[in-house]
């Protein structure tokens, strides 16, 4: 299938699952923007020459989100997980670069083609009348997709209290030309225990937004950016396979989350922002993982669709 048709089919399958909600993202529809800064560690500058990793503090905007493509999905609903975080780093020369991560270490599939099979199965399963057969067949042949669906994804107490995984590996290049392959993780300084299913179900629909708002009114919040390095033999081209937590990790820097985007501009700013995991700067480039480039192209098409009335 030509790539453009593949991306359109992926977006169609998301719309068939969640419905069309003009102005909102096809997935991760409900979100919250927080403004802050990022300061890289010394080690970050030694593994990549990318401008935002050289140690000077740069402004960032983070968008925390729920998985569902239905904007009204409550924060504690199982469809609201995994949670997402998208980060935009703004550089002094006007350039910017993004990270897009979610709160599950892995993905159901390795390629956009397989994701289409998965999404079309889900869309058929929620259609009226439902047809569970395509999803059952897909899952029987894709055990990691089955694992993704069945793995617990408990609701957090805070958007800033859980780990987010970049999933798709990237190549980091320093000034000498040395290269490393790694995957991002964004994590709290102190992990918070998650809610039980019963606790999550009893929470207010916007409890995660309210929690961040209340905490920021008392001061800044910190999160860390970590790079998990590939170990020999790790599948760098397959984001559906998590790497061992024993792999070497480097702390790339610390985010300071300082203030919510003001209420008057919150929704419009979310609509205007278009994050992409493929928006990279010199010093970070694509790895053998095909998903980053596909996501980059696909998210651009998604933005055009969601901006249509
Ligand atoms: C082929 C695979 C994928 C497809 C088809 C897909 C689809 C989409 C679409 C259509 C959007 C909305 C984009 C927009 O309107 O701005 C989106 C956003 C998002 N995706 Fe994916 N995605 C894929 C892979 C992934 C992976 C691997 C992750 C986790 C690392 C991820 C996490 C997110 C997050 C967190 C957002 C919200 C970004 C924001 O706040 O703007 N996606 N995705």
Automatic annotation (TrEMBL):
Belongs to the catalase family. It comes from the Bacteria. Heme binds at residue 299. InterPro entries: Catalase (IPR018028), Catalase_core (IPR011614), Catalase_sf (IPR020835), Catalase_SrpA-type_pred (IPR024168). The keyword Metal-binding applies. The active site is at 28. Coiled coil: none annotated. Residues 15-309 form the Catalase core domain. One of its GO terms (cellular component) is cytoplasm. Its EC number is 1.11.1.-. One of its GO terms (biological process) is hydrogen peroxide catabolic process. It comes from Pseudomonas shahriarae. Transmembrane segments: none annotated. This is Catalase-related peroxidase. PROSITE patterns: CATALASE_3.
């Amino acid at each position: 299938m030509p790539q453009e048709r593949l991306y359109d089919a992926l977006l169609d399958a998301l719309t068939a699952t969640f419905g069309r909600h003009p102005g909102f993202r096809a997935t991760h529809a409900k979100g919250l923007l927080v403004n802050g800064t990022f300061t890289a560690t010394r080690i970050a500058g030694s593994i990549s020459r990318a401008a935002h990793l050289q140690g000077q503090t740069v402004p960032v905007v983070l968008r925390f989100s729920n998985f569902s493509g239905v904007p009204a999905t409550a924060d504690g609903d199982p469809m609201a997980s995994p949670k997402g975080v998208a980060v935009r780093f703004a550089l002094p020369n006007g350039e910017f670069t993004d990270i897009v991560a979610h709160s599950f270490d892995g993905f159901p599939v390795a390629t956009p083609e397989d994701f289409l099979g998965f999404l079309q199965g889900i869309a058929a399963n929620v259609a009226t009348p439902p047809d569970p057969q395509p999803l059952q067949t897909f899952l029987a042949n894709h055990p990691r997709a089955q694992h993704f669906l069945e793995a617990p994804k408990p609701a957090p107490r805070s958007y800033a209290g859980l780990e987010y995984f970049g999933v798709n590996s990237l190549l980091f290049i320093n000034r000498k030309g040395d290269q490393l392959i790694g995957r991002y993780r964004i994590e709290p300084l102190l992990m918070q225990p998650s809610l039980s299913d019963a606790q999550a179900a009893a929470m207010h629909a916007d409890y995660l937004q309210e929690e961040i708002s209340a905490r920021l009114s008392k001061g800044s919040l910190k999160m860390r950016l970590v790079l998990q390095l590939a170990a020999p033999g790790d599948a760098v081209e397959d984001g559906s396979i998590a790497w061992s937590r024993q792999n070497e990790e480097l702390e790339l820097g610390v985010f300071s989350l300082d203030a919510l985007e003001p209420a008057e501009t919150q929704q419009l700013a979310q609509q205007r922002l278009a994050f992409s995991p493929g928006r990279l700067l010199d010093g970070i480039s694509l790895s053998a993982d095909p998903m980053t480039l596909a996501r980059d192209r696909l998210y651009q098409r998604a933005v055009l669709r969601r901006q249509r009335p």
